[in-house]
Amino acid sequence: MNDMSEMSGSLRKRRLAPEDLASPHLFRLLLRLGLPAMFGLSINAAHHTINMVFVGMIGEDQIAAIMIVLPVLMLVAAFGEGIGVGVATEVGRALGAGDRSRASTLASVSLAAGAAFGAVSAVAIVAFPSALLFGATPAIEPLAQRYLLIIAISIPLTMAQIILDFLAIAEGNARFSMWTLVACFALNIILDPITIFGFGLGLQGVAMATILSQLVALSIYGAYHARRLGTIRLTFSWRFADIRHLKPVLAVGAPTTLTSLATAGAIAAMLSVAGTYHGEDGIAGVGIALRLIAVGALPVIGISLGAQSILSFAWGRGDISRVLAAARMLSVVTSAVGGVYGLAAIIFSERLAAFFTDEAAVLSIAGQAIVATHLPFLLFGLRQTVLILFQAQGRPKAALAVGLAQNGYLLFPLLSLLPPCFGFSGLLAAMFLCSALTGLLSCVCLARSLSALRQRSADDPTALRPHPSFCP
User: Fold this and answer.
1) What is the per-residue pLDDT for 282?
2) What CA–CA distance (Å, rounded) separates 444 from 133?
3) What is d(CA 327, CA 301) in angstroms, rounded to the nearest whole number?
4) Using CA atoms, how far apart are residues 287 and 293, in angstroms rounded to an integer?
5) Whole-number percent of the chain with pLDDT over 70
6) Is 99 exposed, middle or buried (CB count within 10 Å of its CB: 0-12, 13-18, 19+)?
7) Which of 248, 272, 359, 407 could pair with 266 in a Cys bridge, judged by C-beta atoms 3.0 to 4.6 Å apart?
8) Over the stretch 192-244, which tens digit does the pLDDT of each residue have?
9) DSSP letters of 139-206?
10) Helix 320-347 vs helix 380-392: crossing angle, to nearest 10
11) Using CB atoms within 10 A of its CB, is residue 320 exposed (0-12), middle (13-18) or buried (19+)?
């Protein structure tokens, strides 16, 4: 009986263990890491959509209240994603170099810093709630303020969960991250109607359901690390001097944070311009196109997140040949996924828009916006590939230059020039050009980077190194 129990426990550990990041089966490894990350992002999107359905059952004012609070949560999440990307990259490189001690210290310090930032943010929100609710009307502000005060409790939990998700992916355990997210979001969806309608808590019930589901997710991660099922060892015994490890983490993660912030600003700017020319119909039509772009980006981003651990690990090992092979493979896979989605969206633009509305004017605007945004989407996979490659190589400035192109220094000058001259067509042209020019920039950067990698690989025939002994 004991033998059977030990065998069952050993089997469970193997199933929960990270993937071998040095596996020679590179394509299979890419899929085993990328597909769970992609599925986790998709579940996240579905979870937020279902949340909005429940909120819509309460009333329109409640939906507006959540939308008023959303920018605050996006701001905090942007910093969480930045720290997550930074620590995942640095941990991957440390594991690739065989330095598990440094990887564990990086992970522990970054997790503590993220939770501390979340706690400070929560205190600031509780102290100055009204100052953060931009655009709230007198009718909506009390609802938004009550929701924000409760959801503030979840901000340290959100920061910790984001970082733990990235750490699981960094050590090659995207499956565990995926199943933890599935459990968290499924519980949230179950708790929503219970807290909203069963206990009659309304909008506050939405916030409480979020907090409870996050506590469960963090408990799962706590058990994972307490039982040492992964490679990284989280510890509270790090020294104050270890805070210096945050510098490379923040440097690598800064492009992700700034890109997320720029994207939020870009969406607001494009919708504002659309409303200037076509009012609510313009906002709705362009909003539909932007929502579809976000849906199409999820698979590409998910696969890229899975590949990030492979590239960071290989770069840390000094295995330039593997970095080159992984980057090539990632560019092919992401380009294929983005290309298929982009073409399908263009071909079926009106049918896709019809899922959201039956208003003829909105359908017409949405159809034009879908074509303008999805035609250059064929190059989105290359943008993600070069971003992940730059991050793995520890080149934050290069990553920032590519990351801020589409929704930053290319978009806003185009918005200031084209719409005043050509009206709504100018907006469509600006949306198309900023994406297309970013795609072309990504092509040039990727071609130059791959050429440099080929040269280094040819100059160093001993680049292939044995993987560290602690790898599964």
Assistant:
1) 82
2) 42
3) 14
4) 10
5) 87
6) middle
7) 407
8) 889 888 888 777 888 888 889 989 999 999 998 888 888 888 877 777 777 88
9) TTHHHHHHHHHHHTTHHHHHHHHHHHHHHHHHTT-HHHHHHHHHHHHHHHHHHHHIIIIIS--THHHH
10) 150
11) buried
Helix, strand, or coil here: 261? helix
Q: Provide the residue ranges of all domains of the chain, joining segments of one domain with +.
A: 23-238, 250-460
Residue with tokens 């991050």: 391
Query: Measured on CA atoms in the order 382, 428, 366, 277, is the torsion positive or negative?
Result: positive
Residues 6+ apart with CB under 8 A from 57: 196, 197
Q: Who wins on pLDDT, 368 or 146? A: 368
- DSSP for 234-260 reads --S---GGGGGGHHHHHHHHHHHHHHH
List the structure tokens of 359.
Answer: 């208003």
Closest CA to 176 of 212, 216, 115, 230: 230
Burial group, residue 16, by CB count within 10 angstroms (0-12, 13-18, 19+)? middle
Strands (E), 366-469: none
pLDDT, tens digit, 9 for 90 and up, residues 275-294: 888 887 887 788 788 878 88
Compute CA distances 344 → 262, 265, 296, 353, 375, whole Å: 27, 28, 10, 13, 10
Asked if residues 252 and 94 have their Cβ atoms less than 8 Å apart, the reply is no
How many CA atoms lie within 13 Å of 418's alpha carbon, on the beta-carbon side?
Answer: 20
- 126-130 own/partner pairs: CB under 8 Å, 24+ apart: 126/152
Angle in degrees, 0-180, between the axes of helices 246-317 and 60-96, rounded to the nearest 10: 50
Q: Which residue's entry shows tokens 């990235």?
A: 166
Question: How many whole angstroms separate alpha carbon 387 and alpha carbon 317?
Answer: 20
Please give the helix or strand (H or E) that residue 325 lies within, else none: helix 320-347
Query: Under DSSP, is residue 95 helix (H, G, I), strand (E, B) or coil?
Result: helix
Tokens 């969206």, residue?
Answer: 345
- Number of C-alpha atoms within 13 angstroms, CB side, residue 411? 24
Kindly indicate the confidence band of residue 384, based on its pLDDT and cuts at 50, 70 and 90: very high
Query: Among positive and negative, which fits the CA dihedral 225, 226, 229, 233?
Result: positive
Rounded alpha-carbon distances, angstroms, from residue 193 to 70, 187, 199, 382:
21, 11, 9, 41
Burial of 458 (0-12, 13-18, 19+ CB in 10 A): exposed
